[in-house]
Amino acid sequence: MLTGKTIILGVTGGIAAYKAANLASLLKKQHADVHVIMTKNALEFITPLTFETLTVNKCLTDTFDRNFKFEVEHIELAKKADLAIIAPATANVCAKLAHGLADDMLTTTVMATTAPVVIAPAMNSNMYMNPIVQKNIAALKEYGYEIIEPATGHLACGVTGVGRLPEPEDIVDYVEFTACRTS
After folding, report:
1. Taking the CB of the first residue and of the last residue of the chain, which one, N or C, has fewer CB atoms within 10 A?
2. Most distant CA pair in the chain, distance
3. d(Cα 4, Cα 150) in Å, to the nearest integer?
4. What are the catalytic residues?
5. pLDDT digit string (tens) for 53-110?
6. 1: three-class secondary structure by DSSP
7. CA distances from 147 to 8, 54, 157 (A)
């Protein structure tokens, strides 16, 4: 159980973003306080209202949102997080984090947290196996980020191979294990 745990769920702009809704729901069913941060590109695949309904928390999408109580929101959320998970994590967000680029609400919050960060890459097989992406993932591991390896199977682009986001139930199991281990 994740009772009393504050979980940041980062959702990036890949087709697997639809699975993040189920992931948010499952985390909430484990009694976690789930805060979703979506990248601009994630908004093309799924809406913030979905996550707000499932988590009963405001879904954050904009670092410069003026409709909030006065606090540096990404810093406050980063401080109270027990764990952050990015699922799906695109090649773009993996590259940003591997190189210390914090230019949106998700990357600034992740860079500001001292909580464990779990990254679940999901993308086309060729993208995932690209040496640059593999180097970025290796760098993330070096920096202490935990990586959930993508599953193999049929991808939305019609290819069968590595790059699928693992099933939300498997991600929740990993999050529970990580949260318990670091308590």
Report:
1. C
2. 47
3. 28
4. 157
5. 999 999 999 866 655 554 556 688 898 999 999 999 999 999 999 999 999 999 999 9
6. coil
7. 16, 25, 23
5 near 179, Cβ under 8 Å? Answer: yes
Give which of 180, 177, 135, 127 is closest to 157, Cα–Cα.
Answer: 127
Q: Does pTM top 0.90 for this prediction? A: yes
Which residue type sits at 137?
I
| Tokens 């003026």 belong to residue | 66
Structure tokens at 88: 């799906």
- The CA-based angle 108-182-56, given to 5 degrees, is 55
Other beta carbons less than 10 A from residue 146's beta carbon: 17
At 70, the amino acid letter reads: F
In sequence order, the β-bridge partners of residue 33 are 6
- Can you say whether residue 178 is alpha, beta or left, with left for phi > 0 and alpha for psi between -120 and 50 degrees? alpha
Could you read off the pLDDT of 5-28 as tens digits, one per residue? 999 999 999 999 999 999 999 999
Beta carbons within 10 angstroms of residue 52's beta carbon: 14
Residue with tokens 């890949």: 14
Tell me the per-residue pLDDT of 124-161, one tens digit each, with 9 for 90 and over: 999 999 999 999 999 999 999 999 999 988 888 888 88
Cα–Cα distance, 130 to 92 (Å, whole number):
13
- CA 87 – CA 178 distance, rounded (Å): 15
- Look at the chain and count its residues: 183
Structure tokens at 55: 């988590």
